[in-house]
Amino acid sequence: MRALLRVPPGEPVDLTAYDTRATPGGPKGKAAGLAATAALGPGLAGLQERLYAASTAGDRRRLLLVLQGMDTSGKGGTVKHVIGHFNPSGCRIQAFKAPTEEERSHPFLWRIAKALPRPGEIGIFDRSHYEDVLIARVRSLAPAAELEARYGEIREFERSLAEDGVTVVKVFLHLSYEEQRDRLLERLDTPEKHWKFNPGDIEERALWPAYREAYELALERCSSAAPWYLVPADRKWYRNWAISTLLAEHLAELDPRYPPGDFDVAECRRRLLAQ
Amino acid sequence: MRALLRVPPGEPVDLTAYDTRATPGGPKGKAAGLAATAALGPGLAGLQERLYAASTAGDRRRLLLVLQGMDTSGKGGTVKHVIGHFNPSGCRIQAFKAPTEEERSHPFLWRIAKALPRPGEIGIFDRSHYEDVLIARVRSLAPAAELEARYGEIREFERSLAEDGVTVVKVFLHLSYEEQRDRLLERLDTPEKHWKFNPGDIEERALWPAYREAYELALERCSSAAPWYLVPADRKWYRNWAISTLLAEHLAELDPRYPPGDFDVAECRRRLLAQ
Question: Going by C-beta distance under 8 Å and a sequence separation of 6 or more, which residues neighbour residue A219?
Fold first, then answer.
């Protein structure tokens, strides 16, 4: 799966060449997809427990899932789904909104560094430092030279994470313009979903080509230290299956181990039974 | 349920008078308990979504579940179970370990205040500020006068939380001495669980009567602003059912409402369809 979904590093990216309804490597159809995803659960839970257990003996490794995509592409739904596999106590979830005044007074990576997973944890970012080269670029929220410099800063930041034992799995949820309209219309047509709707979403949507270009640049320029995976996102069942599979592959490669106990089991048993 | 499990406020508490295997108000048996707990899920998820939605329109209310209990009483298992009902993006989980050097340099409530749920969120504390009158008392980690003063500080703190819209649901997981031994033995007998075992647990267990007394004092002295609920914890299925039910009752009482949209639906629809 990793090879299938990985964006070729360092090459120009043309998002229009990728089908948002495709299901590369996936099960045949929704029912099979849901079953296959559910079947991944126990393995994922076991790997997470081993990762956490290893950290209690000094293993500093951890995993960070970074989710990016246009409005309604399913970042929130993915967080909810993915965490369903895991023990949430070992997960650190962070949704990044428009930066606060305090956050704006610091370098853009400041708030990101604060939210990183600790050793043994699985971190999930709903949006991330990439917003600082996405909306920031589209909306010219920083001087052009500063925006340009950020790509290199991100590469360096992700390289330092890798050196510190953080496996960064970056996923771009690739949604079509038409599917986004359908999802926004569904929010409008459901009073219980009005709180999720913001008329500003329509204005952002009008900038779709500029966002696509900004994503293409980010995917091209920031894949040296941690690759980008492009997940077709029009079909929710495929999105969930693909991301669960990516996580399973990365965690299996880390192959975390339960640490051996550093105590005398028989002696502890004896003391407990004597109490 | 609330009335059934609530520790009578301000009265001396005798924990030995409560049966740790009891199932007050609960379904008859494990199978019925599991089914009843699962049936609570959709209602809990709906209430959480409404709570979160309301916060986007300025509602400051939120809920904080505080879990306390002896080692192996099931605090971690409860976190995992409870969060299974909810959208984890709207939850803020914090496990409190022995305080760090930085935390020790601040008043004991400092680290607690930093971890509180934001408006609309559901917070879950695995251990809490009560450790500062539990292990701190049993192990004499602070001068006696300071320990005594903490009960009043906790009452004041919890009163201020209530005034700020935080519903605090405090649960004492009541485990028997015998059940704890069985659970510790099971950890010893399972190599994959050795990382969870600490020989120090045996020493803490030797102080069981002192811990019981410390709990009795905390339950008696700190129930004015937020009541304590005593949940028999020897049966995991009952524990999960009781806490899910407590949360459902408290959230239903808050009765959070989806905020109305502050935009023109027809106009937004028209603009979307024109794009």
Answer: A7, A13, A172, A228, A230
